[in-house]
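Intended use. Records like the one below are meant for learning the mapping from a protein sequence to its folded structure. Do not use them to infer anything beyond what is encoded.
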Amino acid sequence: MTSQLYLGLRLIGRSPLSFNVHKFKLRNVKLKPFDNIRWRHSEGDRPALGTSRFGASVVVKLMGREKDEDDYHLEKPKKPPRNAQTNWNLDAEMAAFLKRIGEDLPKDMFITILTDESHLTSLTTVTNEHESSKIRTHIPGLRDKNEKEDISSDITNNLSNREFSILGKIFIEFYFKEYFNNIDLPSQCINSCISWLTSNDILDNISSNIGLRDMILCNSLSIDIIRRCFLAFIGGLSDHCGGYRTGLFVQDFILTQLIGRDIILRWNPADPAKYVNNEVNKRGFQPVESRLIRSSGEHTITSAYLIGIYSGKSCLGQGSGISIEEAELEALRSSLRNLYGLNPSSLGLPLHNDNPLNNNPRLLDELWKDKHIELILNYSLVA
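Structure written out for the chain above:
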């Protein structure tokens, strides 16, 4: 809230005095301009020392200094990234990251996952050995080029995370299809959930906050590179640990983004009555019909209607709206939530022990192994 300063000036004199407000200045204070100032004369019983009995008082309202437009464009000095600090150690960061997420990967594979194609491009431009050793000393975590264990040899093996990122995206789609096959939801709803979970917005949010940003080896860091590195980590995990461990990782970090989300509203079917009728017929219920439960303020701008979807004497869902059509649409959505067990009071999507894929670890490993072999064969045929 802008602070306000009120400055009271008592101007002493027998007649109204001229006072130029626009010439009155204070440091860091903006004066609100007044076109006309009306003086108020007052008589006092006791005149002030050295003054007359008549005085003129005026209160000038001073507004606190508001921020100029230039202040918003001033850039704060950016802190150097952690990998540019003197105490940066890439080996320790990689070990801490794997311990934090509870996974295990070989060091050379993790280095490949963290290496972007742009970093390899810059290394290939170096022709002589002396210049290449200088560049390797600038790699985050490599301060001494004479160290016995130099991981720069792993970085310069012409391997980037491109193949692993493709494999990671394939595994995410594969896992979601296997997961949602065990849930009684329409295919259109499943496709909507998968497309949302694999969207760039969700993956960017996860990859930016998981802790891979400072360890990535690249020329210029961007959100696309961070997302690609996150997908490469999933691909490397699936290649080394199998489908079960990687599925737990995808479940904990990506699938949990659906918690608290309204899946039916995100799906937003064009004809919800069709899916309600199909589900009712599948379960052997009586045909559904919409009934007006109550209304208020009809034929006014504040009208409100409450519609219920009934199957016989059972109420499947209720919805309210400013019109009958809007209330019926919301009631149909509420019925779909109740029929599929997606309302806020239900347990929602099965996770952890409730997930059928987690009850049989070998099943997911075998499914992913077959899928992995198929991908390798297809890649070799294309190559």
